[in-house]
Structure prediction request, 250 residues.
Amino acid sequence: MNTSLNYNICFDNDLSQLISYCNEQSSEIIVGTDSNTYKYCYPKLNPSFQAQIKHIIEIPAGDQNKNVEQVYHVYSELSKVNSRRNTLLLILGGGMCGDLFGYAASTYKRGIPFVHVPTSLLAMVDSSVGSKNGVNFQSYKNLIGTFTDPKAVFIHSPFLQTLPLRETISAFAECYKHAILDSPQHLELIRLKTKNGYDRAIATIAMAMWSDIDTNLNAHNIICKCASRGSNFNYIKDEQTLRKYIGPLS
Prediction:
């Protein structure tokens, strides 16, 4: 999918496009991931592609680990294997993983290229496509960060099968928030597309997110209203009602 953003978003059913892209972009590929994603999603990468990966940087899962200490760890790991300016960082994980590794990549050696391979629904439609990178500091959410574009985003919806159903449903609440703020028509379109498969739903939901991005500005001055809205949304707590509205997820 070619969007009005400064990079492409690709729905990659077998991850073959990801492999081709990475091989074209760099001879040195490093994977950044967290403990959960490494366990459940990394094994789904093609074994021959895994053999090409120079190094894997793993951080502990959980938002409590989205901090500068883990960024220092990423810097140390990148430095340990002599990462260069043209080293490609493949970020495999959910929103926390994408935010932290994206920030590390955008600041290490004044910026190295990175691609997002989001593994959660919210990461697929929000954190991986808004060019937002950052970490928490003390008691403040995302206090330290950058607006830096990835080189590309590769969405592989089968990764969602590795998540608990409840987590995916919870993510839909955030997606619906943006659709509601966008327009009633977009909300209805998401409901219809969801019943026809994940990829179409993800693409439709993401449009509500992308409509909040002012792409008239360059990557360093991008304005993302999504960022200011944050995640402090009063989530729909009636799970049964939400299931009925969006249709079956499996």
